[in-house]
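[job 4471] stage=fold_predict status=RUNNING
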Amino acid sequence: MKPHRLICIGKITSAHGVRGEMKLLPYLEDTSYLSLKQTFFDKSGQQLTLKSLRSGPKKFFLITLEGVHSPEDADSWKEKEVFMKRSCLPNDLEDEMYYSDDLVGLKVSGHQKNKLMHVVAVHNFGAGDILEIEEQETRKTYFVPFRKEAVPLVCPKEGLLEVTDSFLLEDEKNQEDKNQC
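[job 4471] inference complete, writing structure tokens
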């Protein structure tokens, strides 16, 4: 665990109403950690001062930040992510649940033992999490779906995860196209 790191806990999706409220889409399964007592940050690490936080429509929360007084002010926050300190989030997650941030930096093992690889990022484009894995020597990047058949073993405490080799095969057609450029 990296206690001083910031974890993205949601994204502001739009303005709501005429008083500067904004819709926050939380990424947390357990949203009980979202309260006015919590300290929130923007991507740069700048502390955000929450004036209000309440349940909104569907799975959204409605928030107001200090200095945001109008829909135009709120619109400037659209698509911006909101963060919390990792140490403020629970450590007792259910089995096979992880914070994306805890996966970044893990060494990757598999049957291709001669290659040193590690996780450089975790992405989610809407269809599930994808691990971005990089070979250390060649800097070649692989994108692997974070599913049991692709990643059968995850051990953050040991700094390791295992990836099924078939998910690390390079797309030959894609490589031919790259070579022609």
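[job 4471] summary: Residues 43 and 180 are 38 Å apart (CA to CA).
[job 4471] exit 0
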